[in-house]
Hints:
Blueprint: H1 2-18, E1 20-22, E2 34-38, E3 41-45, E4 51-52, E5 54-60, E6 66-73, H2 80-83, E7 95-103, E8 106-113, E9 118-124, E10 133-137, E11 145-148, E12 154-160, E13 162-168, E14 181-185, E15 196-208, E16 211-220, E17 226-232, E18 240-245, E19 251-257, E20 263-270, E21 276-286, E22 289-292, E23 301-305, E24 334-336, E25 344-345, E26 353-356, E27 371-374, E28 379-387, E29 395-402, E30 407-414, E31 417-426, E32 429-438, E33 442-450, E34 457-463, E35 470-477, E36 489-496, E37 503-512
Antiparallel strand pairs: 1-23, 2-3, 3-5, 4-24, 5-6, 7-8, 8-9, 9-10, 11-12, 12-13, 13-14, 15-16, 16-17, 17-18, 19-20, 20-21, 21-22, 24-27, 25-26, 26-37, 27-36, 28-33, 28-37, 29-30, 29-36, 30-31, 31-32, 33-34, 34-35
Amino acid sequence: MKKYLSVILLFFGISLAAQKAQNPVIFADVPDLSIIRIGSDYFMSSTTMHMSPGVPIMKSKDLINWKIINYASNTLGNTDELNLDNDKNNYGRGSWASNIRFHNNTFYVTTFAQTTGKTYIYTTKDIEKGPWKEISFSPAYHDHSILFDDDASVYMVYGNGKLFIKELKSDLSGIKENGLNQVLIENASSPAGNAIMLGAEGSQLYKIKGKYYLFNIVWPKNGMRTVLIHRADKITGPWEGKIGLQDLGVAQGGLIDTPDGKWFSYLFRDYGGVGRIPYFVPVKWEDGWPVLGENNKVPQYLDLPESKGLIPGIVNSDDFNRKKGDNDLPLVWQWNHNPDNSFWSVKERKGYLRLKTASITNTFTQAKNTLTQRTFGPECSGITLLEVFKMKEGDFAGLSLLQKDFGLVGIKAENGSKRIVMVETIDGISKEIQSVPFTGNKIYFKAACNFKDKADLGRFYYSLDGKEWIGIGNVIKLPYTLPHFMGYRFGLFNYAEKDLGGYVDFDYFHLDNKN
């Protein structure tokens, strides 16, 4: 009898656990997250660096199921790097480490960009519909966080290792003359010891029940990414610090509470080719300190509703059918760098995305108008149907997995004929792995990813009828590299190696959470 009772209890335990949220909360590249709660709604900003539009804004009712609702930035500017002109690019740069706040019925989203050397503050009354107002000033304050204090002062904390604080003008248009301007913490990394590989950064500043709390990440040598927490009774200090969490390398983020009084810390983890993925840990308060995790560990399950999956809120399929009033592109899509909007359309041919060749290059990563979505884990695949009858000599179009070490499959128009081509890139060097003659005008492509346990493997396929899939080229590695500083992206591409004027039509892009 006891044996059967144990089995029943185990079954119910597994069933109840399956109904709870699990870590990672989002198995996709959503790094540098910053979250606020307004009533029962949560809003999150994140980093997408060289993508356009940038600084994605997401909304949730339960902290687990998120939907992209807007972007704070359409473009950082008009430069060769941002436009992929003159062999220049913006990979790994662009907008970094955003911070979201709400004050006096206004939403504030801040970021900074090494590309332009500026700090950006975007404001809106309506976070879902906009419009957004942009304020920018120099220099670019690294990994900053802002705080609207009770006395109407506005502070910005920033830096790496040595952290600084400056007071902003009331309209946030720049630094306040004769305002607070000092070193906040001389060596913020010190709670983690003296042997430090990455100094304390990623600041997120809060005021809770009259006390100031500052969250940072630090990375000790021969150790792992670690959460640091400092607190003070006054904004100017003195500040006392301690290690907040040291498990699985889950670090960098802050605090959020729920309407029913629960607290969580939102953080992220480097997870190979899929990117930097969000984890949440429960928080308890002891002696005025937030205590993270369960027995100092990141739990698998959370006392939050279970995830319904990333489709359609973070990533989604697209048949390119647009009704009156629809956006030309749903918010799940981002361009690789600034697009040239004269070279693409979803209106010229109803139900299709038309990509015209927008640049002449021999390098895929310099090709303009590559349209991207996140890959996601633990497994995923993307399928597209491509019509190629208007390609010109030297054109190359297809489906990619975009990072520095990219892979792709596509149609190449060359020497008066067409070929199905698979390309692999290792350590930045690209090589054509397999080529198959092609005489038709329609071709199906598939890219599949396996991120389970950081396997980081990709595979490409083609099909002539959409039913029988034929593998092409190698199984490729999908390594996360700092030059791009982003998880792998599905990419629909078309570029010219000789002359502009050709185009291709993508009938659809379909996602699946299977390999």
